[in-house]
Amino acid sequence: MSEDPKNKEENLLNSEKPISVFTENNHSQGEAQVLSRITGSPTIQLIEKHQGTKTLFRKFSEMNWPVDIRPLNKSLVTDSKWRRIDATQEKRRSFLQEFCKKYGGVSRPQSHLFHMVSRIYVEDKHKILYCEVPKAGCSNWKRILMVLNGLAPSAYNISHDAVHYGKHLKKLDSFDLKGIYARLNTYTKAVFVRDPMERLVSAFRDKFEHPNSYYHPVFGKAIIKKYRPNACEEELNNGSGVKFKEFIHYLLDSHRPVGMDIHWEKISKLCYPCLIHYDFVGKFETLEEDANYFLQLIGAPKRLKFPNFKDRHSSDKRTNAQVVRQYLKDLTRTERQLIYDFYYLDYLMFNYTTPFL
């Protein structure tokens, strides 16, 4: 907390020694499993079987990361009403690009390529790559992608389960190296982000304040066991009733009893915005207008509009700054500061205002 902010910023993305995208001998167990699933095992033998793949393997390992950002194609946007939104979009893109140039300091990614693109959804017809950030409108974005793919006539009649468990959409890590490389360099890449504190509180409310057959037994039980002294047997058995303060203790614990989850993982670790340069940066705070402008840019059918309904728990008030303050008031100043430190990079990258701590 006493660390000099300038020094902290200069080392944000350069805290580890950069490594190649691929190495032939030094995969972690998880990376090896991913590579085996896609290319087979042993890795090098199978790479040599496929014509051209060996060259691509070398090309990826020698790629000059990050790739320069491309200008948006605005030829399909004819209505002057988008002028203000376009100006905002250009500022966001420029801000993120300048931030990455100033503080990035890496020539190659520190994570395995297949992991880096594992949150990116592909829509080939309109040549879109969308990086999923949970609690930032991702459910409705998946509905839009399904409509663009011709899988549904309207975004309004696709259920939550069909969106999240139907496996109708392709992810970028399902393609081979050539397919990934081609799409990263030619498709329009979009990411939609949200104020980190609002996103965190929204995730807590969704997963722990409503019945949930996964988050209560998997996360709730572990959190209550470690962070609630004298918990009763029923609480330990069902994992329901996690308090926000207990959830924060779990989040900030370097020895968490259960791992991280995409709903509260940092956006910088979900979408790698300083290594994959996104052509469009939308924000949850201006979700509808940003999304509808993006649909214009990619030439979506004019009748297709971004849905504005709440995907689940529709009777609950949306998580906003006022709701966040109610949750933060139960934390100490130190805890609030540590949450900000945890999401420090997301605040800086996407130019979010420092919260009142």
TrEMBL record:
<dbReference type="InterPro" id="IPR005331">
    <property type="entry name" value="Sulfotransferase"/>
</dbReference>
<dbReference type="Pfam" id="PF03567">
    <property type="entry name" value="Sulfotransfer_2"/>
</dbReference>
<keyword id="KW-0472">Membrane</keyword>
<dbReference type="InterPro" id="IPR018011">
    <property type="entry name" value="Carb_sulfotrans_8-10"/>
</dbReference>
<dbReference type="GO" id="GO:0008146">
    <property type="term" value="F:sulfotransferase activity"/>
</dbReference>
<keyword id="KW-0119">Carbohydrate metabolism</keyword>
<dbReference type="GO" id="GO:0016051">
    <property type="term" value="P:carbohydrate biosynthetic process"/>
</dbReference>
<keyword id="KW-0333">Golgi apparatus</keyword>
<comment type="similarity">
    <text>Belongs to the sulfotransferase 2 family.</text>
</comment>
<keyword id="KW-0808">Transferase</keyword>
<protein>
    <recommendedName>
        <fullName>Carbohydrate sulfotransferase</fullName>
        <ecNumber>2.8.2.-</ecNumber>
    </recommendedName>
</protein>
<keyword id="KW-0325">Glycoprotein</keyword>
<dbReference type="GO" id="GO:0030166">
    <property type="term" value="P:proteoglycan biosynthetic process"/>
</dbReference>
<keyword id="KW-0812">Transmembrane</keyword>
<keyword id="KW-0735">Signal-anchor</keyword>
<keyword id="KW-1133">Transmembrane helix</keyword>
<dbReference type="GO" id="GO:0000139">
    <property type="term" value="C:Golgi membrane"/>
</dbReference>
